[in-house]
Amino acid sequence: SNGATLLEIACSKHQQGDINTATQLYQQAVQADPNLHSAWRNLGALLRQQGKIKESRHCTEQALKLNSSDGSLWGNYGNVLRDQSLLEESCKAFREGLNRAPGSRGLLQGLAISLGRRGEHQQVVELLTPIADEALTNSGSGDNALAELLLELGNAHHALGEKDRALQRWREGTHGA
């Protein structure tokens, strides 16, 4: 089979939750066609989920070489770098993603997590507060992404010694989750 066909089958297996088969098929797809950035991207994401961070980073870097304009791919790279405790590089990757996808909540949250791990809690508060406040006014219940964002914001307030503000954000997060 050609790479595109393997990629299509791999995506289907991935959606069905058959992670092992999907991983094998993504690997076969990039061997058949090393220019399939989606196969590299998905393989990198699956390997990261499996804790294979070095391999995940390699795949994500291959995908970026083929398509550096994808903001969310830079987010994947930021996550992998954070997993390797390369926090400065992780922040740079998230910022690069934000240059390509301004306002992406996922990229902003990823940046905030890396900043928080670096101890830059005030920056986390400044980054996430406007996003959280806007999302709270526009969101219904059951928004897990918002709940995760509010958790990070609460953690930053807590680290800054702002206990009441931290509790407020954590409560807001548990309300919608």
- Mean pLDDT, to the nearest integer, reads 93
Biggest sheet details: none
What would the principal axes of the Cα set say about the shape?
Answer: elongated
Q: What is the helix fraction of residues, given as a range?
A: over 70%
Which percent band covers the strand fraction? Answer: under 5%
Structural Rg: 18 Å
Order of helices and strands: HHHHHHHHHH
Count every beta strand, where a strand is a DSSP E run of 2 or more residues.
Answer: 0
Give the structural class. Answer: mainly alpha
Report, as a whole number of angstroms, the end-to-end distance. 43 Å
Question: Which residues sit in consecutive blocks of at least 5 with pLDDT less than 50?
Answer: none
Q: Could you explain the architecture of this structure?
A:
80% of the residues lie in helices and 0% in strands. The protein has 177 residues and is mainly alpha-helical. The radius of gyration is 18 Å and the shape is elongated. Helix 1 runs antiparallel to helix 2 (19-32), helix 5 (71-83) runs antiparallel to helix 6 (87-100) and helix 7 packs parallel to helix 9. It is built from 10 helices and no strands. The protein starts with a helix and ends with a helix.
Keywords:
mainly alpha, single chain, 80% helix, elongated, 177 residues
Question: Quick summary of this structure?
Answer:
The protein is mostly helical. Helix content is 80%, strand content 0%. The chain starts with a helix and ends with a helix.
Task: Please outline the helices and strands.
Blueprint: H1 3-15, H2 19-32, H3 37-49, H4 53-66, H5 71-83, H6 87-100, H7 105-117, H8 121-138, H9 144-159, H10 163-176
Helix pairs in contact: 1-2, 2-3, 3-4, 4-5, 5-6, 5-7, 6-7, 7-8, 7-9, 8-9, 9-10
